[in-house]
Structures are given as structure tokens and as C-alpha cells.
Here is the input.
Amino acid sequence: MQNDHQSRIEDIKKPPFDSINKIGRTPLGKLQIRGPVSADQLASYLLTDGLCCFRQPCRQHHALIELANQPDGLVFTASLANKIISYVSFQKPDYPWWQSRCFPKLIELGSIETDPAWRKMGLGKNLLDNIFKNKDFDYFDNFVVMAAHFVQSWDLKNTGLTPWAYRQFMINFFAKYDFTTWETVDPEIREHPSNILLARVGKNISEPEITSFTSCCLGT
Here is the structure.
């Protein structure tokens, strides 16, 4: 199974580094949206202290560098000078349920995080707009992009939302990028009723590949 999984990873052809590279302006300076970012470039950046949702910033920084070095790892960033204040990452699904069911055209939106001090400035939206609504960047039209969301990683404290309200917020937010909800028997997602599986079916995905994804979701 490990060799089979490795062969599926090798089917991924990454887009060139900095396929997206744009500059915007904020009250605090020039904002750079770029990606996928190389491991070396990531190593030259710092993560702001607010990027601690998944682990401490220094550890998350190291994890993103490692991910960018992987054959299937993609990291997109929004930065001011050399400080990353928001990022989105992708890789082949690494949950046990999905590793044994993965197929070449399936990729996971692994994490999206913005420093809380910047959350009302639309950085996550800016990144996803450039990734999924960019006429000059259609890489993900060739994939089913899945996104598993778990209640334990949601910022319920700072947002004041209940788990069900946050769940609906996530559904509404990702719907703008053509993600829809999918039923699944994945045991990790089913651990909590608020957990959710979203997926975006790229316009170049065939019916057999959609059937493969449905089978993955239902364990058939």
C-alpha cells in the first residue's frame, strides 16, 4: 500500500514556483500574495505570532517548509516584508482513511490560517480568489480539492460563534469557490456532528473520477 500511495503522489505535477505573484497595498505597507512558495523562500520568512491555530508559529513554520519540500506540497502566502500573515496549504490527503483510498486527481486543502489581527482585512479571501478565481492560474481545475474541517481547530472563542454557526460560516465561505458538502463515513469526520467534508470538483474532472471520489467518501 505504501508503494501504491507513493506512486499516486508522483502523479502530481506541481505548478512553477510563484505562478501567483501579486502586490497589494494595506495601511501597514505592501502586501505580497505569492505561491506556490519554495521551501527556501519560506525559510527566509517569519510567521507572525498570531499564526498559532495548529501549533506554535516556529513549529508551524518548520512544518510549512517541510511541506513545500514534499512532491505534493503546495504553500501560498500573504506577507508583509518578510512576515507571513496568512497562508493556504495543499497536499495529498494524509488522514489514514484517505491515504488508502486516494487517487491521482485528489488533493487536499490542508490548512488555511490568518493572523487574528488581520482577519477582517480579507486576506484569506484574497488568497483563495487568486488560487481559485484567477484566469491566469487554473491548476486546481484538474483536481478534486477536498477540505476536511474539524471543530477542534475552529476559533470559537474569538469569533463567539457556536460550532453549528461556525460550520455554516465555513460552508458559506467556501461555497464562493465552488466547494460543496459531501457525505462521508470517514471515522475522524464523524467523530463530531459539526465536522464537515467540503470538496471542489475541478471543471476538467471526468465522471469516473467523480465516481472515484464518491466511493472514497462512502468507503465503497
In short: Residues 1-10 have pLDDT under 50 and may be disordered. The longest strand covers residues 83-91.
